[in-house]
């Protein structure tokens, strides 16, 4: 389905994946349990190509202003973070085979 978030000017689309695609605005994953959209929470971490890092440190390293950090959508499931909009997929959660779920972010502005 699709979910519009007018406050952020984004639409999030989830659909069965046709191929394995991962970028800063879309990722292919095999979720475990319920998929949710949320902001950063204390203790969150993500594994990117450079290794595992806390989301708090990742945002600070990327010089994202503190006032904007709670506005960055994070897609998670019962097992943790699947990906972060504008940053990418959690490398330990990316799908390596189909069937999988494709999650994409699109601008609605």
Give me the secondary-structure topology.
Blueprint: E1 2-5, E2 10-16, E3 26-29, E4 36-38, E5 45-48, E6 51-54, H1 55-61, H2 66-69, E7 74-77, E8 80-84, E9 88-89, E10 101-107
Antiparallel strand pairs: 1-2, 2-10, 3-10, 4-7, 5-6, 7-8, 8-9
**Rg computed from alpha carbons, rounded to a whole number of angstroms:** 13 Å
Helix-strand pattern: EEEEEEHHEEEE
Low-confidence stretches: none
Largest sheet: 4 strands, antiparallel
Based on Cα principal axes, name the global outline: globular
* Mean of residue pLDDT values: 95
Strand order of the largest sheet: 1-2-10-3
Question: Could you tell me the number of beta strands?
Answer: 10
Strand content: 35-45%
Number of helices: 2
What structural class is derived from the secondary structure elements? mainly beta
Tell me roughly what share of residues is in helical segments.
Answer: 10-25%
How far apart are the termini? 19 Å
